[in-house]
């Protein structure tokens, strides 16, 4: 591929145009200097805020140095894709429905990894077809990549006080993906932070996981507790989980910038098996076979049946109770694993039925 300045400008322009045609709402290009993000990552890890996510430190500096993860990388193409099924849905109201199961909106549809990876590969193929062969590697939350700092430097948005990326034009309900390339493409201006004095995300967090602006202690975050944590959920945090059985969207739901968000146009991200309408009791009644069938192709499957039951037991313990809930929990005790049994017993105790 020719590397004249004019040619590279054209490549960058084409990339952004093609990204839009492939369904990405935003596309930006940045260099590989993540020095500031690296120092912040080390401080976060040093405080133990990553909890059991040892993979966050497993690869050393490769996470913050793209050229060491993928030798030859000169630029990173960062893209975003909206996933919110229904912009008009009142998510905070749903968390106040004790019988309803709340699942983070990103996980209601098909697993996003394959869709974004396929689209990024198509983008790489278009670049190759139009401008010649080049070195690249596709990433979609699948390797040690600092996707949010990269996206911030590429101009897609800024990292908010809740640690999610926020766009002035698109809010924060979107997935990110990256294309590491060996092309010295022109780079975009980084985004500026526009949170100002707003503290709504900090104030709303059920477990007060945002320990200071822009810093999240994952060990207290409901998304971590219901998805990443393999062991028992700490006793002192179970009541705050409420009816959230997979992730938590509260901090995004209150963000003023999400008035600019848009509902997704991707059918794959729309709710499957009516998971946005299920009750806790119905989901708790699923056998492992049913769980595996209904979560096929879903991000939810990654937690496995035992953690699924664990989360549901906690949520049922936070519900309004009643004879049906208590009976369902008691019936499940006989065949429950030790992990699930502990949480069922807690739920029964919390409902006043030991």
TrEMBL record:
<feature type="domain" description="4Fe-4S ferredoxin-type">
    <location>
        <begin position="184"/>
        <end position="215"/>
    </location>
</feature>
<keyword id="KW-0004">4Fe-4S</keyword>
<dbReference type="GO" id="GO:0051539">
    <property type="term" value="F:4 iron, 4 sulfur cluster binding"/>
</dbReference>
<keyword id="KW-0819">tRNA processing</keyword>
<dbReference type="Pfam" id="PF13484">
    <property type="entry name" value="Fer4_16"/>
</dbReference>
<dbReference type="InterPro" id="IPR017900">
    <property type="entry name" value="4Fe4S_Fe_S_CS"/>
</dbReference>
<keyword id="KW-0479">Metal-binding</keyword>
<comment type="function">
    <text>Catalyzes the conversion of epoxyqueuosine (oQ) to queuosine (Q), which is a hypermodified base found in the wobble positions of tRNA(Asp), tRNA(Asn), tRNA(His) and tRNA(Tyr).</text>
</comment>
<feature type="binding site">
    <location>
        <position position="63"/>
    </location>
    <ligand>
        <name>cob(II)alamin</name>
    </ligand>
</feature>
<feature type="binding site">
    <location>
        <position position="221"/>
    </location>
    <ligand>
        <name>[4Fe-4S] cluster 2</name>
    </ligand>
</feature>
<protein>
    <recommendedName>
        <fullName>Epoxyqueuosine reductase</fullName>
        <ecNumber>1.17.99.6</ecNumber>
    </recommendedName>
</protein>
<keyword id="KW-0963">Cytoplasm</keyword>
<feature type="binding site">
    <location>
        <position position="195"/>
    </location>
    <ligand>
        <name>[4Fe-4S] cluster 1</name>
    </ligand>
</feature>
<dbReference type="GO" id="GO:0031419">
    <property type="term" value="F:cobalamin binding"/>
</dbReference>
<dbReference type="InterPro" id="IPR013542">
    <property type="entry name" value="QueG_DUF1730"/>
</dbReference>
<feature type="binding site">
    <location>
        <position position="165"/>
    </location>
    <ligand>
        <name>cob(II)alamin</name>
    </ligand>
</feature>
<dbReference type="GO" id="GO:0046872">
    <property type="term" value="F:metal ion binding"/>
</dbReference>
<feature type="binding site">
    <location>
        <position position="198"/>
    </location>
    <ligand>
        <name>[4Fe-4S] cluster 1</name>
    </ligand>
</feature>
<dbReference type="Pfam" id="PF08331">
    <property type="entry name" value="QueG_DUF1730"/>
</dbReference>
<feature type="active site" description="Proton donor">
    <location>
        <position position="141"/>
    </location>
</feature>
<keyword id="KW-0846">Cobalamin</keyword>
<feature type="binding site">
    <location>
        <begin position="248"/>
        <end position="249"/>
    </location>
    <ligand>
        <name>cob(II)alamin</name>
    </ligand>
</feature>
<feature type="binding site">
    <location>
        <position position="251"/>
    </location>
    <ligand>
        <name>[4Fe-4S] cluster 2</name>
    </ligand>
</feature>
<feature type="binding site">
    <location>
        <position position="223"/>
    </location>
    <ligand>
        <name>cob(II)alamin</name>
    </ligand>
</feature>
<dbReference type="GO" id="GO:0008616">
    <property type="term" value="P:tRNA queuosine(34) biosynthetic process"/>
</dbReference>
<comment type="similarity">
    <text>Belongs to the QueG family.</text>
</comment>
<dbReference type="InterPro" id="IPR004453">
    <property type="entry name" value="QueG"/>
</dbReference>
<feature type="binding site">
    <location>
        <position position="205"/>
    </location>
    <ligand>
        <name>[4Fe-4S] cluster 2</name>
    </ligand>
</feature>
<keyword id="KW-0170">Cobalt</keyword>
<keyword id="KW-0671">Queuosine biosynthesis</keyword>
<keyword id="KW-0408">Iron</keyword>
<feature type="binding site">
    <location>
        <position position="141"/>
    </location>
    <ligand>
        <name>cob(II)alamin</name>
    </ligand>
</feature>
<dbReference type="GO" id="GO:0005737">
    <property type="term" value="C:cytoplasm"/>
</dbReference>
<feature type="binding site">
    <location>
        <position position="255"/>
    </location>
    <ligand>
        <name>[4Fe-4S] cluster 1</name>
    </ligand>
</feature>
<dbReference type="InterPro" id="IPR017896">
    <property type="entry name" value="4Fe4S_Fe-S-bd"/>
</dbReference>
<comment type="subunit">
    <text>Monomer.</text>
</comment>
<dbReference type="GO" id="GO:0052693">
    <property type="term" value="F:epoxyqueuosine reductase activity"/>
</dbReference>
<feature type="binding site">
    <location>
        <position position="201"/>
    </location>
    <ligand>
        <name>[4Fe-4S] cluster 1</name>
    </ligand>
</feature>
<feature type="binding site">
    <location>
        <position position="248"/>
    </location>
    <ligand>
        <name>[4Fe-4S] cluster 2</name>
    </ligand>
</feature>
<comment type="pathway">
    <text>tRNA modification; tRNA-queuosine biosynthesis.</text>
</comment>
<keyword id="KW-0560">Oxidoreductase</keyword>
<keyword id="KW-0411">Iron-sulfur</keyword>
């Amino acid at each position: 591929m020719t590397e004249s300045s004019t040619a590279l400008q054209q490549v960058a322009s084409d990339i952004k145009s093609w990204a839009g045609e492939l369904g990405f709402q935003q596309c930006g290009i940045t260099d590989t200097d993540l020095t500031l993000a690296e120092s912040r990552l080390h401080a976060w890890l040093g405080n133990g805020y990553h909890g059991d996510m040892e993979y966050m430190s497993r690869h050393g500096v490769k996470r913050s140095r793209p050229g060491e993860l993928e030798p030859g990388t000169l630029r990173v193409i960062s893209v975003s894709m909206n996933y919110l099924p229904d912009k008009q849905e009142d998510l905070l109201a749903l968390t106040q429905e004790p019988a309803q199961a709340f699942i983070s909106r990103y996980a209601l549809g098909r697993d996003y990894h394959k869709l974004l990876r396929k689209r990024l590969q198509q983008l790489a193929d278009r670049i190759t077809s139009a401008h010649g062969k080049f070195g690249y590697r596709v990433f979609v939350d699948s390797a040690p990549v600092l996707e949010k700092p990269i996206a911030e430097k590429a101009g897609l948005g800024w990292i908010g006080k809740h640690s999610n990326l926020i766009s002035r034009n698109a809010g924060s309900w979107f997935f990110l993906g990256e294309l590491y390339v060996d092309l010295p493409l022109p780079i975009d201006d980084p985004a500026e932070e526009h949170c100002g004095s707003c503290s709504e995300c900090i104030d709303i967090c059920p477990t007060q996981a945002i320990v200071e602006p822009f810093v999240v202690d994952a060990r207290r975050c409901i998304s971590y507790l219901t998805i990443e944590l393999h062991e028992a959920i700490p006793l002192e945090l179970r009541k705050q989980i409420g009816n959230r059985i997979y992730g938590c969207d509260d901090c995004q739901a209150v963000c003023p910038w999400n008035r600019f968000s848009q509902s997704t146009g991707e059918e794959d991200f729309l709710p499957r098996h009516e998971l946005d309408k299920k009750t806790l009791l119905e989901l708790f009644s699923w056998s492992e076979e049913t769980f595996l069938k209904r979560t096929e192709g879903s991000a939810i499957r990654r937690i496995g049946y035992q953690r699924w039951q664990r989360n549901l037991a906690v949520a049922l313990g936070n519900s309004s109770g009643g004879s049906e809930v208590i009976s369902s929990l008691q019936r499940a005790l006989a065949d429950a694993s030790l992990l699930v049994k502990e949480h069922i017993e807690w739920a029964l105790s919390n409902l006043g039925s030991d």
